[in-house]
Amino acid sequence: MNNSIYIDIGNTYVKTLCQGVFDSYLSTEFDINRFKDVYSKMWLSSVNTEFSYDENPKIHVAKTSNSYKTLINHYEDYHQLGVDRWLNLITAYENYPKKNALIIDVGSAVTIDYLESSGDFRGGIIMPGLSKLRNSFDKFANTSSNILSLDLKKNTQDAWNSGSSHMFISAVNEAINQFEKQFKIDKVLITGGDSQNLAPYLDKSVIVEPYMTLQGLKFYSEYVG
After folding, report:
1. pTM (2 decimals)?
2. What is the CATH number of the domain that holds 36?
3. pLDDT tens digit at each of 225 positions of the chain
4. Is residue 49 part of a domain?
């Protein structure tokens, strides 16, 4: 039996996978040490620079590389590609073989990456997530990531949240449209903490994959051993 746990540490949430069961915690409440005597291996992916843990030989930290099987990372400096994006690419490569995939990860930041059916990762873009966008103007600042309808609002906070929702949705839709003009796209995959909130507002049919990074971490662990 595989007695490993897979842990994806984001800025807001920590997600785990063990024995096929996914779970989620607030990053501020998560303590990795609670698992050290339970599992033989702890596979870790983290983009949270404030997260710390005690050194432990059971902990294996995923790292971005220039290749995975026939998946090729064409980033100018592959070390600069966030490990979450790399693991998402691995999941797309494994779960949707020989497909041209657009991968959208929606969280504190939004990343949109393009993977060719050949296994070549050509690059992507990064933009602020909705909570960061809403926090960008001091007078109306808040960190809500709830999407509000675009209609006439009768108070300033709702007006700001509605307007920023529209800006955010429009930016993602436009990015998808521009990529479709430049590249052949068979699948649009969306993941991340806010993926299920955003997906219904997108013009393009998308596949919601809430745990792409964790799936990629498991594939990664099986590959590196």
Report:
1. 0.93
2. 3.30.420
3. 578 999 999 888 899 999 999 999 988 889 888 888 899 999 999 988 888 887 888 999 999 999 999 999 999 999 999 999 999 999 999 999 999 999 999 998 999 999 999 999 999 999 999 999 999 988 999 888 889 888 899 999 999 999 999 999 999 999 999 999 999 999 999 999 899 999 999 999 999 999 999 999 999 999 998
4. yes
DSSP letter for each residue of the chain: ---EEEEEE-SSEEEEEETTEEEEEEGGG--GGGGTTT-SEEEEEE--TT------TTEEE----SEETTEEE--SSGGGS-HHHHHHHHHHHHHSTT--EEEEEESSEEEEEEE-TTSEEEEEEEEE-HHHHHTSSGGG---------SS--SSHHHHHHHHHHHHHHHHHHHHHHHHHHHS--SEEEEESTTHHHHGGG-SS--EE-TTHHHHHHHHHHHHH-
The CATH number given to whatever domain includes residue 144 is 3.30.420.40
Assess whether 113 and 207 both reside in one domain.
yes
Domain that holds residue 48: 4-61
83 lies in some domain:
no
